[in-house]
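cron nightly-structures :: item 1 of 1
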Amino acid sequence: MIKFNFILLFIVLFSQAKGQSSIIFKLNFHPNQEYEYTTKTATKVTINFEGNQDLIDALKLQGFNLPATVISESEIKSVTRTKKKKDNKIPFSMEYVSIDAYQNFNNIESKIENPLEGTIIYGNYENKSQSYLSTVDSIINYKLDAKNKNLLKHSIEKLVDTVYTEIPIGLGQSFKKEAIMEVPIPSYGQLKFITTTRYTLKEITNGKAYFETVIDLKPLSSENLIEIPSTGGGQGNTVYDIMDNIVTNNKIEYTIPVKIKRENLTITAQINIQNSDIVIVKR
């Protein structure tokens, strides 16, 4: 699941032959390394309401000057350190070094405090043939209660599908991968999408592989209440480091026009999301 206040990861395994012209995607953690992550997300949501005038007037009394604009920006810095492999497991520690987040609602800016800042997580990675498993031994954070620590533990402790393609992908070739993305919509809640990303390998040079990405979106809802025009979607680029088997730079921009129909009310929204992930590997 893709969440913008958590860390986004894409990692790839390459066979390292001179003149390499194809790759196989596979997640792979290495022991005795340090990974510095910086994730930046900027979101702009412009929303309007149509329908029941009494309800619209009530929303205006609550501070909704229509059309309403919500701008959010966040930067998350974290460090993951791995140790020597033992019994097919790689011990790790993960620290949320800093989390800076701001929101501007109708020109009123506020800082968003995040209790995850300063959290240190200890556990193990276990690489498998088609996936990897993270297990958490302990979470150090005096701001989180037991319930939220357990939620964080379960969000990290899950089996992650790591194989993007089972056969080598060559220059100019493409493949698709599905995931789930959540976007908050004021007065509605979390809007979930199935994202289908098409990766096209454009170049392999100087130990790095360069991909162009195109993303299609589909609402994850069993009800026919959400409409997304064909213009909705995203695009970006991804850079993979061959030696370290990790994405060092991943940038995506989404534009999502949405219409949500509820009882006596229609919500229209224009969503723009810019997301950037940078990873620096140290030994």
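cron nightly-structures :: done
The longest strand covers residues 34-51.
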